[in-house]
Design a protein that fits this description.
Layout: E1 7-11, H1 18-31, E2 36-40, H2 49-61, H3 76-89, E3 93-94, H4 101-104, E4 118-119, E5 126-131, E6 137-138, E7 141-142, E8 149-153, H5 157-170, H6 176-185, H7 187-194, E9 203-209, E10 228-234, H8 244-250, E11 255-258, E12 261-265, H9 269-297
Parallel strand pairs: 1-5, 1-8, 2-5, 8-9
Antiparallel strand pairs: 3-4, 6-7, 9-10, 10-12, 11-12
Helix pairs in contact: 1-9, 5-6
Amino acid sequence: MSEKHPVIAVTGSSGAGTSTIKGAFEHIFRIENIKASVVEGDSYHRYDRDMMRQKIEDTEKQGGTFSHFGPEANDLGLLEKLFFQYGLNGTGERRYYLHNEEEAAPYEQQPGEFTPWEPIPEGTDVLFYEGLHGGFQHGDINVAGQVDLLIGVVPIVNLEWIQKIHRDTSNRGYGAEAVTDTILRRMYDYVHYITPQFSRTDINFQRVPTVDTSNPFIARDIPTADESLVVIRFQDAAKFSVDFPYLLSMLHDSFMSRRNTIVVPGGKMVLAMELILLPIISRMMERRLALIKADCRQPY
């Protein structure tokens, strides 16, 4: 962990909606003039798309399961090393996983491949990670231990599955049965490696629908923001000087469900994220600047 070179991680399962909070952070970075180096969790997969398919097939023939949720399919030691190195001196390497033709075209590569490793740009203010394993901790690997601000995005599981099924069938061309098979194949890794992360997060954003999602595998649409509530839980509200009276006044129809938990209407989720995260990021950058200025004043 580092105050001079902070690491922010947003972690959530596939279909959890991490892109929403990523957008909130990007907006904060713009208005605060913060130069962020963005790292995608998919870039730390161990195998490209073709190799992963083969690995899954080989494992299933042996009676086992294999998924991107588990540590064997990812190079999480390398991710921990990146977070440590960036926190130490603001450097490191990154690459990108090319999900589709549009992303692959500028690199003259194929979808499902990785770009070459490249140095993180010099002079960035913060490292921002979004992916599956920002709060991972297992065995001798402790990714979470290198993170200064850890955010969890974790809708209730039925809603998460609805979002995944709709995304993968509408945008990625998979059949509903294939997506269901993927959910089942990932279940062991989901329980053992994904969900424990949300006990380590500083803040969790959990969307809860107010409509019936009891059978996510036949749902025809995703519940809208206005058809849901967002439960926001702080691990340690005092750590971030969270002003709950201010949040309650700014977020109409919100309420406190526990001393460290505020519930807001789903339609105000993005506003709530910005109201909560902006002062935290601002203080983080103020502390960073103060340390840099102090270093500049040190005699040589």
